[in-house]
C-alpha cells in the first residue's frame, strides 16, 4: 500500500490519500479522542502524540497537529497507523449513522425553497472544492438572511477560512440567492 500526502492551505493540517475508499458516503470529523469512540482508526490516530484532529472524506484522511509538533516527526507514525489499519481490513467507522452528520443534515425534506437552494449550491459548487483541500463544510442554518456554516477538517482553524467564507461562499450565495445577505461561521 502506498499512501500519498498533500499539503493543505492550513499548515497545521496534512491530507493523506491511502489509494482506497475511506468512507462510502458523507464525512466524519473528530476534534478529540473522546468523540471518536465509533472509529477504531481515529482512536488509533489520536494515540499518536500531537494529533489534535481527524477528518475522514470519501478517499482521504486529514490530520491536524498541535502547533508545537513537526510533520517530519508525526508523519511516519501516522502513515504506519493508516497502512496497518487498511491492510488489516478493519472498519474506519463502526456506527456510520453517528458519523455522517454533514450529509444527513443536507437531506432534510422539510427545507423551504431557499434552504434547498443553499444546500444544493454548497453540495455542487463548494464541497468539492473544499474537499480538495482536505476539508468539508456543513450547513447549520439560515435565519434572517444569514447562512450559518461549520468548517471541518483542514478548513477548521485554517488562516484562510474566513476569507473563503466571506469572499468566496458568501459572494456566490448572494449572487444566486438574493435572500442571502451574509455567511457566518457557526461553532
TrEMBL record:
Annotated source species: Kiloniella spongiae
Transmembrane regions: none
Scaffold protein Nfu/NifU N-terminal domain sequence ranges: 3-89
Record PANTHER family: IRON-SULFUR CLUSTER SCAFFOLD PROTEIN NFU-RELATED, NFU1 IRON-SULFUR CLUSTER SCAFFOLD HOMOLOG, MITOCHONDRIAL
One Pfam family hit: Nfu_N
Top-level taxonomy: Bacteria, Pseudomonadati, Pseudomonadota, Alphaproteobacteria, Rhodospirillales
Xref: SMART domains: Nfu_N (SM00932)
Protein name per the record: Iron transporter
GO MF annotation list: iron ion binding; iron-sulfur cluster binding
Family: Belongs to the NifU family.
Amino acid at each position: 500500500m502506498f499512501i500519498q500526502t498533500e499539503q493543505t492551505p492550513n499548515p497545521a493540517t496534512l491530507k493523506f490519500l491511502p489509494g482506497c475508499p475511506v468512507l462510502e458516503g458523507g464525512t466524519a470529523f473528530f476534534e478529540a479522542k473522546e468523540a471518536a469512540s465509533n472509529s477504531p482508526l481515529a482512536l488509533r490516530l489520536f494515540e499518536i502524540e500531537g494529533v489534535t484532529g481527524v477528518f475522514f472524506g470519501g478517499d482521504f484522511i486529514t490530520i491536524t497537529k498541535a502547533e508545537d509538533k513537526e510533520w517530519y516527526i508525526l508523519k511516519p507514525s501516522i502513515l504506519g497507523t493508516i497502512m496497518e489499519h487498511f491492510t488489516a481490513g478493519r472498519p474506519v467507522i463502526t456506527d456510520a449513522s453517528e458519523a455522517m452528520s454533514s450529509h444527513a443534515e443536507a437531506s432534510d425534506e422539510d427545507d423551504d425553497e431557499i434552504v434547498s437552494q443553499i444546500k444544493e449550491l454548497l453540495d455542487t459548487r463548494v464541497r468539492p472544492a473544499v474537499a480538495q483541500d482536505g476539508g468539508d463544510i456543513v450547513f447549520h442554518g439560515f435565519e434572517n438572511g444569514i447562512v450559518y456554516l461549520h468548517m471541518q477538517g483542514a478548513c477548521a482553524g485554517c488562516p484562510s477560512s474566513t476569507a473563503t467564507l466571506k469572499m468566496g461562499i458568501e459572494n456566490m450565495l448572494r449572487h444566486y440567492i438574493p435572500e442571502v445577505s451574509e455567511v457566518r461561521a457557526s461553532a
